[in-house]
Amino acid sequence: MWNTGCDVVENFLPVPIFIVDQENTSRTLLLAQNDDRSNFNGTIFPWCDSTEEIKRKSFRVTDIIHNKVMYYIFQNYGDNLIYFSRTGNWEDKIRCASRPASRWNLQLRDAPLCVDYVSSETYDHRTPNLDYSEPLPDPGVDPDDLKP
User: Which of 9, 26, 73, 133 is surrounded by the most beta carbons within 10 Å?
Assistant: First the structure.
């Protein structure tokens, strides 16, 4: 297993948020809306591999105006990657990191994104089935032209 720390959290959402590490509730962040940021000091993303663990251990991100949980963010035992779930259900998890890493910065937008704290590499969760061991094709290239 690979422990991954969360360094800086940035909130780009239009609402203020409260983040709590449910494994250690003394670790919390309160971020104002629209481009606020704070240091989470390498807090380890909680390890989860079931709905019960997500709801009990993950980073819980709450919209404090509407008192609504927006995301549960956690690390998966099986592949050492960071995921989020809007519902807290294991079946609804979506990857938000491209690879295992020692540390990630976290950007909260319409969905959480992990950003490499050194290279600023960002993983786009909307392309979850791509093989990231190879470079991505030029976005101006028609994928059909890449077929052999």
Answer: 73
